[in-house]
Amino acid sequence: MSEKIRVGLIYGGRSGEHDVSLQTALAVIKAFDFSKYDILPFYITKQGEWRSGPQLAGPLERVEQLTFQPALEEGGTAALQPFFGSAVTASGSRSSGSAAGPIDVVLPLLHGTFGEDGTIQGLLEMANIPYVGAGVLASAVGMDKVMMKKIFAQEGLPQCVFRHFTRNQWEKDHPYFLMEIEVAIGYPCFVKPANLGSSVGITKAHNRDELIKAIEVAFQYDRKVIVEENIDAREIEVSVLGNDDPIASVPGEIVSSNEFYDYKAKYIDGKSAMIIPADIPSELAAQFRELAVRAFQAIDGSGLSRVDFFLTRDSGKIYINEINTMPGFTPFSMYPLLWKESGKSYAELLDDLIRLAVERHAAKQSIQYTFDL
User: Fold this and answer.
1) Is the bond preceding residue 277 a cis peptide, omega within 30 degrees?
2) Is 37 helix (H, G, I), strand (E, B) or coil?
3) Rounded Cα–Cα distance for residues 322 and 111 (Å)
4) Do residues 294 and 196 share a domain?
5) Please, which contacts does 179-188 make with residues 24 or more away whose CB atoms are closer than 8 Å?
6) Domain around 38
7) Are 192 and 240 contained in the same domain?
8) Which of 112, 326, 331, 355 has its CA 20 to 30 A from that of 20?
9) Domain end: 202, 229, 256, which one?
């Protein structure tokens, strides 16, 4: 493509990870090669209102520059016009689009609910626009820890013991679930909202009182809660890149500054360490890479993902923890740092992700969606 690629950048969102998304967007904008790409920013407020900004002439310096003032009269829906007005047709040609010109590909940098869970992906699928990252199914499964673990179990991937329940189930029969957790998992244990990331709403419970409080905290963020056993283990992470033939990076290790790798340890105190590459034997590193690709393919991933593992300190067993289909993407995040160690720069990653999005979209255009007798 001789002309510059027009990228629609979506960030913010109605999620507990709103601020993380803004940091990611700022980092990505700074890394884009503006001689190759035109960037059109779309900000979603914490209340879910869409706001579009002018095409960017160059990198921004502050997060405050990413949040635009309301300029739409009908609840923000007009901000979607550049997407639906520039959809790629089934033949692969672009329509005339908005006055600003058509959008070639969308990069959704939305973490958590209403962005990483298949919702924005479904909107872009309906508009027939290429977008970076996992599709509707993989995004939804990657966000829902319960469904994710069920699919991993079907794939035969090793996991720690877990239990789950909805708010309705908890309110109807919480004595049963308390007994089930204490018998099957014990203390300490981790309590998490089923659909959230960045360690928001996660608590480590050491006794029954803490467990009950932790469950109520988790229910503030989701209608479904998952409780997992505590494992004395090292935390190993692997980055995956690709569509049908994904590749895995070198593994890295997280050494948390807190009792576990919570939101404060990730984003606030700055004391957690990332060891890249992880100090493990080459045979073990290869095993982690293989399991990461298996997890990626198990959920039908595409584009990018980060797969997190536990490596037990006593026995050296590997347990898969979760897959993140839209991992943190600042230059200091684990995902791009693992690829940097593997020989791929931050700018090259962006190029690859956009190329993979366009390739995936083009392949889907050959699918017949209608049937006539």
Assistant:
1) yes
2) strand
3) 15
4) no
5) 181/211, 181/227, 182/208, 185/161, 185/227, 185/228, 185/229, 186/229, 187/211, 187/230, 188/230
6) 5-131
7) no
8) 355
9) 229
Could you tell me whether strands 162-166 and 224-229 are parallel, antiparallel, or unpaired per DSSP bridges? antiparallel
Q: Is 121 a domain residue?
A: yes
* Residue of 273 and 179 predicted with greater confidence: 179
* CA quadruple 336, 340, 342, 348: dihedral, nearest 10: 80
Same domain for 18 and 126, yes or no, is yes
- Tell me, yes or no, whether 61 and 181 share the same domain: no
Residue 181 belongs to domain with CATH number: 3.30.1490.20
Beta bridge partners of 349: none
Residue entry with tokens 């791009």: 336
Q: Which amino acid is at 299?
A: I
Sorted by sequence, the CB contacts under 8 Å of residue 89 that are 6+ apart come out as 95, 128
Show the tokens assigned to 260.
């576990």
Statement: residue 272 has pLDDT above 80: no
Radius of gyration, CA atoms only, the chain: 21
Q: Among 108, 56, 99, 107, which residue's Cα sits nearest to residue 78?
A: 99
Residues 50, 76: contact at Cβ < 8 Å?
yes
What pLDDT, on the 0 to 100 scale, is given for residue 78?
A: 52
DSSP calls for 42-72: EEE-TT--EEE-PPBSS----GGGG-PPP--
Residue 373 inside a domain? The answer is: no
Whole-model pTM: value is 0.87
User: Is 83 found in the same domain as 9?
Assistant: yes
Count of domains observed in the chain: 3
The token duo for 207 is 């006794």
Rounded Cα distance between 348 and 362, Å, is 21
Does the N-terminal peptide bond of residue 188 adopt cis geometry, omega within 30 degrees of 0? yes
In this structure, the answer to whether residues 273 and 360 fall within a common structural domain is yes
204 and 279 co-located in one domain: no
If you ran DSSP here, which 8-state letter would residue 256 be given? -
Residue 151 in domain: no
Q: What is the pLDDT of residues 221-245, one digit of tens each?
A: 899 999 999 999 999 999 999 999 9
